[in-house]
Design brief:
The protein has four helices and six strands; from the N terminus they run E-E-E-H-H-E-E-H-H-E. The chain has helices spanning 34-38, 46-68, 109-122, 124-128, and strands at 6-11, 18-23, 29-33, 75-87, 90-103, 133-140. The strands form two sheets. A three-stranded antiparallel sheet has the order 1-2-3. A three-stranded mixed sheet has the order 4-5-6. A hairpin with a 2-residue loop joins strand 4 (75-87) and strand 5 (90-103). Helix 2 packs across helix 3 (109-122). It is elongated and about 55 Å long.
Length: 142
C-alpha cells in the first residue's frame, strides 16, 4: 500500500505565529494560525483536517461494505465535527460526531444501521482515533 504524506510549517510563537499545511499530493495547501485553531479566525486547523479525513474514510468504508453485500449506494455524504477541549493537561480531542446521509436503494433502515455501525468501528481513521468518543448519526435517504 502507498504511504501518504502531508507537511506543516509553523513560524513564530504560538499566539503570534502562523503556519501552513500541505498535502503531498498537492491537492490542498492552507494557512493556519492560533485564531483559526483556538478561536474562529480565518484559515484551517489540524482538527478540521482530521474531520475531513474521518468523513472521507467513513463514507468510503460504508460504501465498500454495502457494495460487498450487493447493495449499490448512490451517495454517502458524511460531515465530521471534531471537539477540541481544553483540559487541565492541555488541549485534547474528546469526541467526533459523524453525521451521515446515504442514498442506498433496496436496503431497510435496520440493516443500513448495522453497516453504518460497522463502518464507524472499522474504517482506518476511526481505528487511529479510537482514543476519542465517536458518535454516529446515520440516516437512510431513499
Amino acid at each position: 500500500m502507498p504511504k501518504r504524506k502531508a507537511s506543516a510549517e509553523w513560524k513564530g510563537t504560538l499566539p503570534d505565529g502562523n503556519g501552513s499545511v500541505s498535502l503531498g499530493s498537492g491537492a490542498f495547501e492552507g494557512a493556519y494560525s492560533f485564531s483559526s485553531r483556538f478561536e474562529e479566525g480565518v484559515g484551517t486547523n489540524p482538527e478540521e483536517l482530521i474531520g475531513a479525513a474521518h468523513a472521507g474514510c467513513f463514507s468510503m468504508a460504508l460504501s465498500a461494505e454495502l457494495g460487498k453485500s450487493g447493495f449499490k449506494p448512490q451517495s454517502v455524504k458524511t460531515e465530521a465535527v471534531v471537539h477540541l477541549v481544553k483540559e487541565d493537561a492541555g488541549f485534547t480531542i474528546t469526541e467526533i460526531d459523524l453525521d451521515c446521509d446515504a442514498h442506498v436503494p433496496g436496503i431497510d433502515e435496520d440493516e443500513f444501521s448495522k453497516f453504518a455501525e460497522g463502518a464507524k468501528k472499522n474504517c482506518p481513521v476511526s481505528k487511529v482515533l479510537a482514543g476519542a468518543k465517536i458518535n454516529l448519526t446515520a440516516r437512510l435517504k431513499n
